[in-house]
Amino acid sequence: MITVNEAKKIIAENIELSAVGRIPLHKANGLVLAADVKSAICVPPFDNSAMDGFAFKHDANNTGFIVSQNIKAGDYSYAALPDGEAARIFTGAPIPEGADTVIQQEFVKINGNRIEFDKSLAHRGINVRLKGAQCAAGEVIAKSGCVVTPGLIGLLVSAGIVEAPVYLPPTVAIIATGSELRPPGTPLKPGEIYNSNSPAIQAYLEQIGIKNISEFYADDDLNLLKEKTAFCLEHFDVLILSGGISAGEYDHVQNALVDSGVPTLFYKVKQKPGKPLLVGKKNKKWIFALPGNPAAALVCFNQYIKPCIKGMTGENNIFIPDYRLPVANGFKKKKSLTYFLKAKMISNEAVILSGQDSFNLLPFNEADCFAEAEEGTECLEPGTTVNIYSW
Predict the structure, then answer these.
(1) Do 284 and 204 have their domain in common?
(2) Any residues with CB less than 8 A from the CB of 295 and at least 6 apart, and which?
């Protein structure tokens, strides 16, 4: 049995980047750029007005102009604006040739087709957004390693980009093991329970950008489990199994993985919940065999599967905690294990919730994180600062 830190170190040392592909921007949100992206055009692509107002060539001695053009956004005037004349112009509209200044409409007196204004309000170049002010054509506007966000998508689209080079998310298979499990919505017979792990894990995968997910069931039958394991190892990049990883007579997962030729990176971690965790890797494909208890499965996902997938898809510092916060209340634990406690962040503190048993999902109706009580401590005192891992 190894420590939490040793388990994370082993995973980090074995991560390989996933394949790179170019995908439409609307599908790239949350993924990581695999190469620098250069602007395809100058942004703005032309000098344009930052205000509704009047465009003219600045002349410190002239504060009255004849309005000879009207230019709205989407128009383009091919006629040069003579000295002494102005163009009525609207926000985003192109500045006509011959103009270099825009005075906003609030500062102008209009008399027929003539405007006048106080010269102290009109400095040369005011309210003009110059071509390329945001970026020039060919300029790097997003570097490799950036996470694609809605804001970055807006930037790239503005620069004429329609696709992004990203690390492609892996395909994932989930096998729920156990003859007692039934899909949600199925009437239960005596002795049966609902499979809550697969829907929770799938939701977690979707939250981190994984879309290609398939779910399978396997009764407590070694041959059936081997068959489904072999299929998933052939067709998916990541295999997650829940249940059947302890040492009971009907716990067949470890034997199925051995028979499928999966090398084990580690088995069992000094933590609670989630001690009977097995992690393996075969031909660049990751295998995570999680305990069947729901809270234990979610802890293992949060601590190991989520960081591993993020590392595969180009993210760095994958095992760094999200926050360091003091706990609002105390907790007693075994000194020999690291505990991951269901908690809620309130007013810059982590409140440890009741119901920490590994089968108990009820605290997840308000939990938004796990608080880490490290190995070597027996009592977590109120006010102690701990690592916090959010969802």
Answers:
(1) yes
(2) 273, 342, 356, 357, 358, 359, 360, 361, 364
